[in-house]
Amino acid sequence: MARVDPHGGIRWHWTTPRAQDILRRRALPEILQFHREIHGLPQQELADLLGYSTSYVSRIETGSRTITDIGALRHLAERLGLPPHCLGITDDTDADHQLVIQLADSVLRLARTARQAGHATTAVAELWPLVARLEARTADGHADLDTLRLLARSRVGLGVALGHVLPEERLATAARWTGKGLSVARRLGDPALHAHALRHHGNELRKSGLHLRALDRLGQARDAARTATERAEAVVLLARAAGAAGNATVFDKAVEDGHRLLGETAPTALFSEFTLHEVRLRGLMGTGRVAEAVQQLDQAPAAGLAATSQWRIIAAITAGEVLLRRGDATGAAQQLTAAVDGATLHRLPHQLQRVVRASHRLSEVREQADDALARLRAEIAA
Q1: Which residue, 192, 224, 256, sits at the end of a domain?
Q2: In this model, does residue 3 exceed pLDDT 60?
Q3: Is the pLDDT of residue 313 over 90?
Q4: Residue 380 has what pLDDT?
Q5: Could you tell me the CATH number of the domain that includes residue 189?
Q6: pLDDT tier at 307 (50, 70, 90 boundaries)?
């Protein structure tokens, strides 16, 4: 359990294995003793909090007095900031929350599927009510370990979805949400969740232009990875961030790691031969090796089934940029026009902004991208 203190911070002691064991057994004597321990309360102060005498609290803690009355148990749960079910009570509010917990995994999966299918606005619409519900539950001090895990995952998922649908000047909002997810994940002792939050927060920091912080988070995600797939997904994002930062040393090492991991992992939406090639092209451009990027362009692998709509659009923009540097204006216009169509269909304003920057020598494409961006901005404002 997490209890909200008067200063708005969360007391994370209730998320420890010892606390979870106490709560799982609904051991009221131990719950009271643990509550006093984490708050540094003598029995007298706990008695004052509960409205009981010190001797009565002492008898409960020693087990010589048991409480079975539902009203008394509900009173204790309220004063201690615990969900009623921890003391064996099921009320309508708590039962409703348990249903939310049961359905939350499905909501998160559906939101991820929608985002990867190019419907990030749908993902935001699915995640926002879930995050709001979990935030409110936590603010009330009624947050068990499962709730906190879901809160971390939901915050990160919402941040990633917002990172798809917001224009560049508002991407800091996406980074803030993934950062809020990371702040919970790092306290829960769940390595996989922590690595997941680090990966996505680092990527949203990159998109916000905070390159040094992005490299730090993504380097931590790579080092925290427990599986080849986790490492591969951290490495491809690290390469992307290093290229954007112009850090050739980190970029080259990450790309090298990525090529090695291609043989150790199955393709995912984030890591594949296709996504690694796109990241390499863009990073070569970002680190001043344009000629090498031009040379590598024609070696692009097929997108494959794992490639999402967003990655295909990103790859088309990158190819258009490289083609322009190669002097192939016609080929560049074809790639960038396809990117405009895709970004408009899937409501990706910051990809349109990228096209606008890339097509400065292609007035027709730039005008098309500007018009599409203006329509999306109007929709977002509305």
Answers
A1: 224
A2: no
A3: yes
A4: 75
A5: 1.25.40.10
A6: confident
pLDDT over 80 at 97, yes or no: no
Structural domain containing residue 49: 3-89
Are residue 56 and residue 85 in the same domain, yes or no? yes
Q: Are residues 68 and 100 in the same domain?
A: no
Average pLDDT, the chain: 88
- Judgement on whether residues 72 and 156 belong to the same structural domain of the protein: no
Cα separation, 43 vs 105, in Å, equals 41
Query: φ and ψ at 7, to 5 degrees?
Result: -95, 5
List the one residue out of 195, 191, 184 whose CA is nearest residue 232: 195
* 128 in any annotated domain: yes
Residues 117, 200 share a domain: yes
pLDDT surpassing 60 at residue 11: no
Alpha-carbon distances, residue 328 vs 284, 356, 381 (angstroms): 18, 18, 37
Q: Are residues 148 and 107 in the same domain?
A: yes
Question: Is residue 114 domain-resident?
Answer: yes
Name the domain count of the chain: 2
pTM: 0.77
Q: Would you say the C-alpha torsion 13, 19, 20, 24 has a positive or negative sign?
A: negative
For residue 27, what are its two tokens?
């051991």
Same domain assignment for residues 105 and 220: yes
Is 253 among the domain residues? no
Q: Tell me, yes or no, whether 119 lies in a domain.
A: yes
Q: Give me the half-sphere count of Cα atoms (radius 13 Å) on the Cβ side of residue 288.
A: 5
Residues 116, 191, single domain; the answer is yes
Q: 51, exposed or middle or buried, with CB in 10 Å at 0-12, 13-18, 19+?
A: exposed
Distance of alpha carbon 359 from alpha carbon 337, whole angstroms: 10
In angstroms, rounded to a whole number, what is the distance separating the alpha carbons of residues 16 and 27? 16
One domain for residues 105 and 201? yes
